[in-house]
Structure prediction request, 489 residues.
Amino acid sequence: MISLLRSLWLVFLHLFRKRATIPYPEQKAYLAPRYRGRIVLTRDPDGDERCVACYLCAVACPVDCIALDATEDEHGRRYPRFFRINFSRCIYCGFCEEACPTYAIQLIPDVEMGEYERKEMVYEKEDLLIAGQGKYHGYNFYRVAGLAIGGKDKGEAENESPPVDLRSLLP
Amino acid sequence: MNPALQTLLMVALILFVLLNLAAVLIWLERRLLAFLQDRLGPNRCGPFGLLFIAADMIKIFTKEDWVPPFSDKPVFILAPAIIVVTALLSFSIIPFAPGVVILDLNIGLLFFLAMSSIGIYSTVLAGWASNNKYALLGGLRMSAQMLTYEVFMGLSLMGVVAMAGSFRLSDIVAAQEKMWFVVPQFLGFLIFFIVGTAETHRLPFDMPEAESELIAGYHSEYSGMKFGMFFIGEYIGIMLISALIVLLFFGGWMGPLLPPLVWFALKTSVFIFIFILFRAALPRPRYDQFMAYGWKILLPLSLLNLVATGGILLAAGS
Prediction:
């Protein structure tokens, strides 16, 4: 009997507690900076696409929702001709972000992407590309990679010494 | 004004208010339950979610009203009507304020007891007519529960009747001029409250519809407005029991400053709140424990209460 009265009283006190519900559209839940939400393609500090179309994200994707096709520009720089993510399939696991060697593909804390039409959930490259650098600032793959492209030869990358002419080392 | 017309107007007014309050209670219960569970509850539709009442009504009226082909059709259709009709009829003897009463019967309390007994037929018949084993089990439980609880529902009130010397509810309220009956009849109040919860088969005593055991018990097969009728009956039942507790034990409409009707509504809503608090806080007992509790604890207690009250009244020579 006492325990019943006690539980009645304790439940009554819950009337004055803080609500656990977040009234969503007016008040948003806190999403951590590294929350895995919508997927974006970022740009390097020069404003070029970071993606080098290596297909690693498409391979890592467990639900096969990433489709892309690689091509090269006149400087020999690889980029995706198209890049398509089907968000009605995506499970937001973040494997693509982990697989990406150039920090191009990133998951951001945004989950508000509901649509009335299923085909609207398929995002093309222009929907995915953002203007900024996302989580990793100052990183430019072609500026640190020892790959020769137009306008940057071998040995001209950051922290890279010029290539050694092996023949000059001959005795 | 013509007294017959006046009565008719009163009936129409009370019917209107009661049926609307029953609908409001559905919303109120959902919101209060949510508040008691640290949630917000339905708050989207209209101010404070009040338009949910309209939405609920539209929904339940436009649902398919299905009568199962295997059911006993006339009884199946009759059953939900009984509970609403008896609950509403019981309200005819409730004095909301001095003079605001449809029928100030000199056997008012007995009329209420009779109506609540007839109301049980609703659940029993619904369980039987559904031709479904879970519904039947629910109906069976309801009849057993009522056989048990009807006994000391009357007995727990007899102390009040003995003290007031009348079955007329307005006399009982008038007899509480000096002291509310909850003080001398505290035991009677407790027992009546428990029995009233069982009578309206509200949690924690909702064994006839225990959804974890019997799907939905006696109204498993019901849909649409027939299902809604059971709920309206249940909510009118809550209001009825709360109103009776107020009338019998808490001095009815009496109180300082505010008009009588406001006092009555205030006190009644406190008990409606406690009904909802019961639902939020208390777990459902096992069925045999529940029956044993009734026969072994509540019945002796109510008898004891009646004997003691009678003895004291006799000794006092009143």
Summary: Chain A is about 20% helix and 15% strand. Residues 20 and 34 of chain A are 23 Å apart (CA to CA). The mean pLDDT of chain A is 88.
